């Protein structure tokens, strides 16, 4: 019933009607002719639009690959820098500069994505305004979400995973070694990435929302003073002063929704790696509430009000982000952090192995167990260390340690994965499955216990719907009985009349 009412009440877009006015067909619901878009035409337009979306996502991935190349090249450059401060902190310097460059690319591509999304949406020729808004919203969200989070996904799940091991490093164009994580783990790089981008993006958004209209209004007032003089401007009526303010953007509250949705995704998808993200988002939103109030009251013209049944496609996007955040946090805890390897060591390989308990004493020897042995003579020629280590120990070093679970060089299969590696891998996969199912079960349980509509309100809505149906039935019954009486008065009768 509700879908039928929404279908009938929503008008066709003028652009759609002008494009397909020559071809009409009968609407099966309203019984009236309306413009019709052929199935082949609709499919071809959707295929072109999907291709455009795929191409723009590939542009984002290419930008991320460019940042990866920058990090690979720069980390070796900073490691040989003449300043000791940069040379000793080459990893941090590389990550910081890469994040700033990545943020600049994100902001530049966002301008391009809006124009591309508008072009592709108009190319699809949606039938109604709600279809146009949903299509445009989905494209803008996909573009900006991938643009904002692609580098974060790379750091969380790919950085340092495919670098090889000493003696068999993987290299870019057979020259530069792929970048590895910070010695303390990849979470440090992930925290830096999220912290810098979040602070810079929120600062930039607040400036564009308030600072830019302030500058534009100041420039408008300056022009009015030059044209009419300060005394003439002071005598303007209020409506003319309001007219000289900045108009609201063409998409209404779309930018506000998009900003909040992207912030929600950024704070929830990797909250396990950056727990301060929700706090920063809360502080930003407290400030932004007052900035938005000031902007709407003093810097923008009064917007035109429009009625909306709900938040539309944004609800589905929020549901999707919630599901994705559970999955990504499970992978962050299991893959990116050391939580699972520490548990495996405590229960299987540590001093408390087989005792069913874990504590601080059970982690003795964990660092040593997480490091593998490498024979120095097995280094590649271009990877050989500058010195043999005799200045530290008095004699040349024969072995070095690196972070991995591999067999020693004299094993039957040198540098092959150890049994501990497979135990850790199995524990990671098991944790991901258990964690996801547990969180989703809790989510559905809470949704069942706390419904969207209270029971008394739902009963009142059902009661109202029932009374409306009864009124419609009684009105129709009264009309038919009245017609029957009129027919009898006129001497006309029909067999099998109802009622």
TrEMBL record:
The keyword Protein biosynthesis does not apply. Residues 9-464 form the Anoctamin transmembrane domain. Residues 463-497 form a coiled coil. Pfam families: Anoctamin. It is a multi-pass membrane protein. The chain crosses the membrane at residues 53-80, 92-113, 141-160, 261-283, 311-335. It comes from the Eukaryota. GO terms for molecular function: intracellularly calcium-gated chloride channel activity. Keywords: Coiled coil, Membrane, Transmembrane, Transmembrane helix. GO terms for cellular component: plasma membrane. It is found in: Membrane. Belongs to the anoctamin family. This is Anoctamin. It comes from Alligator mississippiensis (American alligator).
